[in-house]
TrEMBL record:
The organism's place on the tree of life at top rank: Bacteria
Protein's name in the database: Excalibur calcium-binding domain-containing protein
Amino acid sequence: MPLRLILVTVAAAGALAAQTAMQHSDSFPELNLSNLIGPKQAPITGIASVIDGDTIEIHGQRIRFNGIDAPESKQYCDDAKGFEYPCGRRSAEALDGFLAASRPVECTFVTWDRYHRFVGDCRRADGASVAAWMVEHGQALDWPRYSHGAYAAQQAKGEAAKIGLWVGKFQAPWDWRTAHADGAAQSRQALGIMSRKLVAEGGSFSCEPRRYCTQIGSCEEAQWYLQNCSWGGKLDRDGDGKACESLC
């Protein structure tokens, strides 16, 4: 068969195949990148409930701030005088106050994390970056593993000013979680509890202010703090379930 005839036959077959495909194009999904990776998540906007210093909840969706890490809710740090204070709780309270100053907050989707939390870049209604503010004010750390140093400049400012975590000594949140892996599955509830001073109370006992064994009058009181307060575990140094054993 002459080469010209072969080429004409192939071209005709190709044209017929193309025509058939066009006639039945509604039977096939469009093969583009958006179909392969799925629809892009729309931004989430609303009034946020604070879970901890790097996590909020809007409309029932947990949102983790991209590129930063804040102290865990149960984490304690040392202040300038070497005294322990609830830095995780302090970070959450700082975040709550910052968000309350300009509502609502809008979070732009970045990815999903392994806990199926929406990881995003969040801004207040006035456009202020939540993550940048938290890091610059020493209430969270730049997390290079995910941020690639995006908040390094803000962290340098906070450290130089010795504010927030930088006022004393602390363990990076990712290291603290590793060291406390047994309690890593902490129950996290919306932190309106903390920022609005709603405290657990039992008769004459209250979780605020925090107490030390030397300030506690009875075994019963010590056990109540252990069972009901976020800081209660500090009263049980050997982990045997008994708080302030000198009292019991």
